[in-house]
């Protein structure tokens, strides 16, 4: 498989053997956490030459950049030419309402609207964002239409039936039951775009600066090993980094989302855990992938 492609927006991705690194830190303040659609499109155009050449998993850096998955899926879908399923391991649904463009918690509905994407599966959700208290913040149209499915762990999903989304919101008590059901989904034979936000994992696996889920590395390994179709493209996000925004509006939004700057005394240890997890995930993805 081709070597990883690092979008170096925040300096958080550690050394990866053979990786191609794109220096993009000048974009960090503009696109981190959220941005206007026009800004994201400008970045996508800058990335296009690198994406058009052979590459492996795209490394995005902090989970604050997860909305970059939208143009990456669009490019992969256009290259592949046929219908895809997008499988996202994430602690959050990333399908929330956001009126100011697109941000790291709102990009999923845009991916689901792509004509080549048959369905988006959000797997491993433990966040309250998928529960009853925050159900009104979710964009319901893609759920009602079956274009987005939530696969939740320990989340109260009773709201979904009342709001007409019961067929797309699946709740489980443990990861083994979730993975059993996920393996039997109707679209299992469709080629896969895989996106991993490492906040899906428990804090004993790797630390992020978002609230975290319950997946273990063995759960991710099982999911990838049991995919019935090849991975045609992939990305990884969820590195640990911190940025002080120049824009007061972004500082406010980040604070409202509960992000705290990592303790500089433990940051190197957390980053080492992140790098070790990357080293474990990349070969698993490569083994299940076709050449990009």
Automatic annotation (TrEMBL):
Cross-referenced Gene3D superfamilies: Ureohydrolase domain
Organism: Pseudoxanthomonas winnipegensis
Pfam families, sorted: Arginase (PF00491)
Origin: domain of life: Bacteria
InterPro entries, sorted: Ureohydrolase, Ureohydrolase_dom_sf
Protein name stated in the entry: Arginase family protein
Family: Belongs to the arginase family.
């Amino acid at each position: 498989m081709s070597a990883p492609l690092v979008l170096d927006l925040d300096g958080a991705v550690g050394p990866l053997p053979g990786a191609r690194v794109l220096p993009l830190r000048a974009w960090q303040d503009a696109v981190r956490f959220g941005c206007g659609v026009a800004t994201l499109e400008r970045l996508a155009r800058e990335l296009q030459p690198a994406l058009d050449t052979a590459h492996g998993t795209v490394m995005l850096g902090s989970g604050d950049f997860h909305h970059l998955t939208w143009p990456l899926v669009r490019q992969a879908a256009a290259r592949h030419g046929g219908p895809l399923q997008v499988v996202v391991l994430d602690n959050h649904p990333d399908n929330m309402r956001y009126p100011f463009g697109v941000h790291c918690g709102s990009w999923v509905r845009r991916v689901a609207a792509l004509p080549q994407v048959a369905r988006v599966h959000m797997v491993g959700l433990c966040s309250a964002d998928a529960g009853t208290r925050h159900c009104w913040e979710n964009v319901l149209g893609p759920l009602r239409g079956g274009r987005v499915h939530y696969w939740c762990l320990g989340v109260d999903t009773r709201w979904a039936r009342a709001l007409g989304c019961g067929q797309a919101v699946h709740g489980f008590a443990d990861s083994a039951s979730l993975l059993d059901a996920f393996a039997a989904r109707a679209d299992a034979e469709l080629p896969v775009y895989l996106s991993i936000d490492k906040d899906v994992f428990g804090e004993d696996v790797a630390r992020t600066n978002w609230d975290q889920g319950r997946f273990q590395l063995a759960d991710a390994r099982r999911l990838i090993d049991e995919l019935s179709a090849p991975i045609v493209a992939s990305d990884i996000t969820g590195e640990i980094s911190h940025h002080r925004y120049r824009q007061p509006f972004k500082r406010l939004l980040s604070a409202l989302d509960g992000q705290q700057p990592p303790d500089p005394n433990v940051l190197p240890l957390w980053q080492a855990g992140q790098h070790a997890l990357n080293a474990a995930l990349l070969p698993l993805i490569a083994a299940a992938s076709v050449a990009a």
